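Protocol step 4 of 5: obtain the predicted structure for the target chain.
Materials: sequence only (see below). No template structures provided, no constraints applied. The aim of this step is simply to have a reference model before the mutagenesis design in step 5. Sequence pasted as it appears in the construct record:
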Amino acid sequence: MTANTRLNINMFKYIVACFTLTLTVIKGELSPEEISQRALVIDKIVVAGLSQKKLALPSGVDDTTFVRRLYFDIMGRPPSYDEIQQFLKTIKDTAAKNPSHSFAFTSRPNLIKSLLNSEGYVHHMYSFWADLLRVKRNLNDNVGQLYGDAYIEWLKQEVRDNTPYNKLTHKLLGASGNIWQNPATGYLLRDLGMPLDNLSNTTQIFLGIDMACAQCHDHPFDEWTQMDFYKTAAFFAQVQTKNSQDGVKEHIKGLREEAKKMQTDGKRGIENKLNNYLRTIYEYGVDSKPNGRLRLPDDYAYRDGDPKSVVYASSPYGLRVKESRNKNKREKDPHNLRRSFVDWVIADTNPTFALNITNRLWDHAMGAPIISPMNNVMEDGEISVGKNRRLMEYLPKMFISINYDIKGFLEIIYNTKTYQRVSWQGDLNEYAFQGPISRRLTASQLWDSFITLYLGDPDSVAPNYANDQYKEMAQKEISEVTLQDAIDGLEKFNSLQKSTYRQLPKMGPWYAVRASHVNRPSNNLNVLIEFGRSDRRLVDNGSTEGSITQLLLLMNSPLVSALSNNNSALIKKLNSCDSDTTRLYTLFYSIVGRSPTPENFNTFKPYIEKRQYQDVIWALVNSHEAKFIN
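Step 4 output (structure tokens):
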């Protein structure tokens, strides 16, 4: 029996196991009852796992800690003093009207839904996707004129629209056209000129399968062979990522000759402007070439193929999908090969598609995945065991039953008692989802904490994106572009780029914008990278590890001074308080999410009385509590 045969049999067994969990398919928005039913199933599975391992069931988390946790997990920022008090007041008022009921839990679903429908959710989830998809404003590290502006804002809109995950994946993997007209092409253009690297990233991102080693040789520790890799990569053999100049070469040549004639001083300024404009607006996009083929490398050393021989596409596992060897069919519909791969990836029967994303979303909410590492949910031809097999089988099936609704899936998780228990702060070897893991803030969450303290409403400020104008520039056919169009167009493009951040407020030396808006080199980006944000060169390679440099930056940078000046929303709030006690409570709730203890009160009250707010802010911002979600 071959490795692939064993793999396919194991895949079939896993599919059968998952589909024995029958769930009614939901159309439209989930009702409170449907959310509650699915949350209850998850809780029962987790409790059963704890019982089997003879582990204690933790208590529920208090309302104040819950609010802070939820705001960070859904909106990527802390709640303000007023937002915390409003939620606590809602619970108190509702309980007073119905004293026979506990309304702490019945008020929580309303808050969860409200936050999931907020603009804050969009920006926080964009950071999740940007790290996973490696989204950058300078989209490709090796190409200067390949801009990701349209791709970035398109992705935010997809989050805002709550596009079902299977449809989002189809858009990303199946996109064609110019990047300004169809920004989803940014995914394939991210690895411009490196199709094999793109395939390696694609299997990790969308399938949770790490085939990178097999790009050069049979995987030393897994089932994947180099032939498996090349057969999978062959689905993209017909993709081309530079727009063809067929039919317009003579026109472009004429424009260049005209530019040369205008350069009386012998310099190439006008010709360079023409070339830069053509590259920026027209050169990059995704299309299919009918005669595209993939061949094995020159040094291919295995018996199942000869060096330089043509490779025919075939799916690496699951239901068999393979390329037709009929040349006429290939050339008649050059998009079909890639389309067949995308359809295979997003099929309900693909055993790792839904599993991979639910594993990642569970990690996003709980602080730990069910299967680790997340880029490799399959090992030796079998689905990895993970920390809870029943949970691993239920979540993908449940996700499919709600039509790949990302927001709905998260809403279910946040409504579980599992998520609403006290956080786990013990040995990770004994962790079995007793509650969310107590964890450090990500770089984006930490930065957005400061922006929230400074602006009050961090979603009230955004850069001046000009994607509609960029799109309008790209609508003109290249055959109709004149030399003056190119010169004026490049000047307009550069002007729009420079104006993106021009009118933004400053917080010390930094632009006062959320992390989701930081996509180009700047002081903001330097801080985010220092605190562990992914450089987006590899899939999801951010870090939440602390460092001495981070501590020094928080203690010695102008950050606390900026938060303590009169332009800060936090200081404006303190100045509006009617007592020093309220001021101290405001600072504690705003920065660490709780009320001050009697010891805190005795320590910090004298500073508040002397209006030495900066000292208190410095102490709280640099505290352990301010950097963690519990």
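Step 4 remarks: Residues 32-52 form the longest helix (21 residues). The chain has 28 helices and eleven strands.
Proceed to step 5.
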